[in-house]
Amino acid sequence: xxxxxxxxxxxxxxxxxxxxxxxxxxxxxxxxxxxxxxxxxxxxxxxxxxxxxxxxxxxxxxxxxxxxxxxxxxxxxxxxxxxxxxxxxxxxxxxxxxxxxxxxxxxxxxxxxxxxxxxxxxx
Length: 123
Fold this sequence. Notes:
mainly alpha
């Protein structure tokens, strides 16, 4: 299991502030054991945390600094995400709307029929 999964399991059992979560995510990101994919998830996670109403302005500034730091990363995917999120961060209140929680998708009949077997005959 990745460090992010362990982190989320841990946070589910305690009352943590946004600052605690961001600090923990940054420590995961700075760990020598995190890979490029983990760092991409962390950048996305801290960006989403910044749009919560419980995140203080000081913490939002800290998150903006983190994003700026990774806009020059040699890891191109991480750099790409950081540049996109930093640009989104500069949009102010638009960021909140873009990063709000998405509702679960509706199940449609075509999705539910995927598991059924269909007979196909080839000549």
